Amino acid sequence: MKKKAVNFSEILARFSEHWSPKIVARMNDCEFRVVKFQGEFVWHSHEETDEAFIVLEGSMTIQLRDGRVDLSEGEMWVVPKGAEHRPSAESVCSALVIETAGTVNTGKTGGDLTTTPDDWT
Q1: pLDDT tens digits, residue range 47-103?
Q2: Counting runs of H as helices and runs of E as strands, what totals does the chain give?
Q3: Which of 32, 60, 68, 96 has the fewest C-beta atoms under 10 angstroms from its C-beta?
């Protein structure tokens, strides 16, 4: 059986909703989730896992209680486990988020933006 590579351009063309992650691959205990967003997410943390953001298109900011990290296309940053953070983007941003499988996107904060990622593997 021929295997198919994950093509981010094709995946990003398949959806337009914001803050609705799509699982595109798994490795060990991690999920690779593609997400589009604009505006501000909720302040939250993940007590049990780090969370990596890789910007595929656009730019974003990861706000932290003691500063911020600005990311442009092709850049990444890892939010350490337990660090309270809030992703945001002035214009539409597409990112690959890598985190432990089953991690709730809003941590224990909950709210309207809490979602279960769609499985596109």
Answers
A1: 999 999 999 999 999 999 999 999 999 999 999 999 999 999 999 999 999 999 999
A2: 1, 8
A3: 68
Give the fold, CATH level 3, of 21-101.
Jelly Rolls (2.60.120)
Contact (CB, 8 A) for 115 and 20: yes
CA 42 to chain centre: 13
Q: Give the domain ranges of the chain.
A: 21-101
